[in-house]
Amino acid sequence: MTSVDTAVPAVPAVPGSATPLRRPAPRRRGSSRRRVGQIVSGALVALLLVIVVGPLVWMLLGSFKTQTEFLEQPVWALPQQWNFDNYVFAWTQGNFAQYASNSVLTVFPSLLLVLLFGSMAGFALEVLVWKGRGAILITFLAGIMVPTQMILLPLFAAYFRLGLTGTLWPLLITYTATSLPLAVFLMATFFRAVPREIFEAAMLDGAGLIRSFFLVGLPMVRNALFTVGLVQFFMLWNDLLIALTFTNSGSLRTLQVGLLNFTGQFGSVQYGPLFAAICLNVVAILVIYLFLNKQVQKGLTAGAVKG
């Protein structure tokens, strides 16, 4: 009985030599290609980090500079003094606290209403069976495509006739209305992935419609709530167009509108306090994102697989 070795091909032996010559191992060529790929990937990641982190570092350094350093020294020059005078100026004389308070009073109640109404509408459109739910879902989907600029003037006229101008109510109502279509569509997608047998079992156990929604449906889509909430939070918190349209006095300005009008005496831009205020805004958003990062990733993964 004979055996054939097929693992490593061998070159025929050289006449007069005792051992046959083996061909070069193909692993070296593969490893060199892998190393080149790793170098290219590392260079691209480093380039992306420079593009993303570079402006943040420049902004942080600028928040410690004086007005004279901004106007007379190079852009990448380090601050001559490291103190928090610009942050104190932004918080006190720059009305940063007032602007942040207005943003909190408009964004968080709107976000709460969007999540509540959006999840309820998504539950009704996907879990419940009734005639016309497909057309209603398409109507919400069409609402996503309506440009915000097109509805601002009619909304301003309506708010003026209702006597709501000069308050924060126009911002709260507009934020809720413009955010609902996307929230309803996303929540309906997440509810579609929940097995119907769970709701049927809850109904057989005596749970009503409200208990099935709050005690069965919402806990199963809690990661989706975090995801939709965080997406909507970034959109509302960074809004400038709607806030600029409906805020007609300095006491009603949100944070983004306040940063746009961050000027000192005679209307000159105070770059140091402005950069300090932007740093405070960015750090607050970054902390919220890092705190909810894991829940958002779970929600996005669930939507990508089951949606």
Summarize, please.
This protein has 307 residues and is an all-alpha fold.
Protein model, in words:
The chain is mainly alpha-helical and 307 residues long. Helices cover 70% and strands 0% of the residues. Helix 1 crosses helix 13, helix 4 runs parallel beside helix 7 and helix 5 crosses helix 7.
On the 0 to 100 scale, the average pLDDT is 83
Number of strands: 0
Strand content: under 5%
Question: Using only CA atoms, what is the Rg?
Answer: 30 Å
Q: Helix coverage percent of residues?
A: over 70%
N- and C-termini, Cα separation:
59 Å
Major beta sheet, specifics? Answer: none
Shape: flat
- One letter per element, helices H and strands E, the order comes to HHHHHHHHHHHHHH
Number of helices: 14
User: Spans with pLDDT under 50 lasting ≥5 residues?
Assistant: 1-8
Helix/strand/pairing category: mainly alpha
Write the layout of secondary structure elements.
Layout: H1 27-62, H2 67-72, H3 85-91, H4 96-126, H5 133-144, H6 148-162, H7 169-192, H8 196-204, H9 209-220, H10 222-237, H11 241-246, H12 255-260, H13 271-291, H14 293-306
Helix pairs in contact: 1-13, 3-13, 4-7, 4-10, 5-7, 7-10, 8-9, 10-14
Features:
307 residues, mainly alpha, 70% helix
